[in-house]
Amino acid sequence: MSGLRVTADKDTGLAVVTLDRPERLNAVDLAMADELAAAWREFRYDDAVRAVVLTGAGDRAFCTGIDRSAEVPQPNSPYMADDPLLSVGPKANDLWKPVVAAVEGMACGGAFYLLGEAEFVVAGTNASFFDPHTTYGMVSAYESMLMAQRMPYGEVARMALMGTAERISARRAYEVGLVSEVTPPGEALAAATACATVLAGYPPEAVQGTVRALWAAREAALTTAFAQAPALIALGNAPAGLQTELFRGRRREHRTR
User: Fold this and answer.
1) Residue 253: inside a domain, yes or no?
2) For 108-141, how does the pLDDT look when each residue is reduced to its tens digit (9 = 90+)?
3) pTM across the whole model
4) Residue 200 to residues 98, 139, 144, 248: CA-CA distances in angstroms?
5) Eight-class DSSP state of 89
6) Which long-range contacts (CB under 8 A, 24 or more apart) does 201-209 make?
7) Which uninterrupted H or E stretch holds 197?
8) 119 φ/ψ angles, rounded to the nearest 5 degrees
9) Contacts of 23 by beta carbon, 8 Å cutoff, 6+ apart
């Protein structure tokens, strides 16, 4: 069964991409990773789609990152690490049509690969953001690098280092610039759709050129940072067995700020 739902309205020029695994908190398995990459690349050739909304099914989570049940074989070298989430975002697939993210519930860890490549984020008041990597003995590399382009350094550092002990509320995410609009619960998708519909109504060449220009201001720093990520992960990650042990024994309580 597909973990991705894609709808498109040719009249408005708007497509909606929904991460549709609510029973797994919309975690991305290998099949969904492939489907996301395929969807972004298909949009490149579909001139009827001029803007995209990205969201998650249900109200518990937008996305909780990589599905821990996914088996990702790794080469025995830090220079050839295989991260399936590196290809799940629109920019990674050379799509320069605007993407607006609508977040309800949790967005954590690998969700930042997607949020980091959206133009802006709309969140319901029930949304929360956190990065669990350090709690499980893992290095937050790509996620933190992407978020460092959207949030002040101290906020990214606190989120990455505090792990599962602390979550950022939608209101705090708005205050630090990660979120551009906060809505009542259940209304983030409608608000994001309203924005994306406006963008889809503008001349596409101007919109896409602006998206590309904005990303150009960020990509040099990201390219340099990403080049260091595989070695940092290889050096800092705990052995897989310990990661599993830490995950099973993770704390359930957390502070939201």
Assistant:
1) no
2) 999 999 999 999 999 999 999 999 999 999 999 9
3) 0.92
4) 8, 38, 30, 45
5) S
6) 201/12, 201/13, 201/50, 204/47, 204/50, 204/97, 207/50, 207/51, 207/97, 207/98, 208/96, 208/97, 208/98, 209/96
7) helix 188-200
8) -70, -45
9) none
Pairing of strands 166-169, 128-130: antiparallel
Q: Is residue 45 part of a domain?
A: yes
Most confident of 215-219, 227-231, 237-241: 215-219
Residue 216, domain member (yes or no) = no
CATH number at residue 155: 3.90.226.10
Q: Is 242 part of any domain?
A: no
Angle at 183 between CA 180 and CA 185, to 5 degrees: 135
Determine contact, residues 126/185, Cβ cutoff 8 Å.
Answer: yes
SS3 94: coil
**Domain coverage including residue 81:** 4-185
First to last CA, the chain: 37
Domain count of the chain?
1
- 8 Å CB contact between 16 and 43: no
C-alpha 103/C-alpha 179 separation (Å) is: 9
